[in-house]
Amino acid sequence: MSLFSFGNDNLFLGVDIGDSSLKMVELKKKNRKMLLSNYAFSENVSEVNFTKIEDVNYLAKAISKVRSDAGIKAKKVTASLPTFAVFSSIINLSNVDRKNIALAINEEARKVVPLPLEDMILDWKIIPDETGNIPTKGNMRVFLTGSPKKLVRKYIDVFKQAKLDLVSLETETFSLVRSLIGDDKSTVMIVEIGANSTDIFVVKESIPVLNRSLVVCASTVTKVLAEKLGMTYAQAEQFKFDLSVTLGGDDAEELPKLIAKTLEPIVTEIQYVLDFFHSHHEGEVEKIVLSGGGAMLLNLAEYFSKRLNKKVIIGDSWNRVSYPEELKPVLSEVGAKLAVAVGLAMREMES
What architecture does CATH give domain 188-314? Predict the structure, then answer.
């Protein structure tokens, strides 16, 4: 059931297609405010990997079921492209103007894109110069992304079969920047701890300038707990949740040794990215924003902050969204895992 009663024409739906989950957020724009209309998520609904499955019919039915069960009415959809499937790079152009920028970008793209350009859909964004302005000629830096045409066609077919209007596709990174950072031009690191991977991005002036991925993630912790404590996977998930609820007070900056040891590769990788950025770019990362379902594990933000000597916070994906005050406790619990879907729903509302 929708949180507010709206007509369908001005509703926008973000659909985050994860490895083993589907997450949806429905927003309504009223004047200059974004209002939460509805949300839904379904995790571990099957053993199928949604981001890699070629069965368009199966994925379309799964999307339709989650949407229908939640009572979501929006028809206009922005969906996520998996980070691992999208190529991105910052390229430098010399002595160009707006008339020939597309040609110049294509020429540079052939040097860096690993697949034939004929098989890719390219998109780009000119990076502001030192004064904060968008250059129109001369030397410029461009953030380039490339998506395989085969993947894009698949998603078009999926949403057509689900009887939804797919208005745009974008990578998870930009959705996270939109929902968690917004207009903040400071240099921020986003650490997205998902079910099957952890993605680390450094974002400078709203542009992801550096990214890394590793396989240690939320499910890694669950599997280790299940193995060491003799539990089923489901029992370990519940134990992890219960521990997150009860741990606090004097233990706010500590993690049980078993969990801390499991998460050590993430700490090491974050430190590596911080050091690399410091040595190759001007400025420092000002803060680290945690996102994804794994971000809610225990007192992870406090633990990371202590280990890395850096300000670490849980990202607030509802920061620019209005919703009934009584829902705040529930939305605070699910906000980290819905951050991509929130950013996707915002995309067309801000254009």
Answer: 2-Layer Sandwich (3.30)
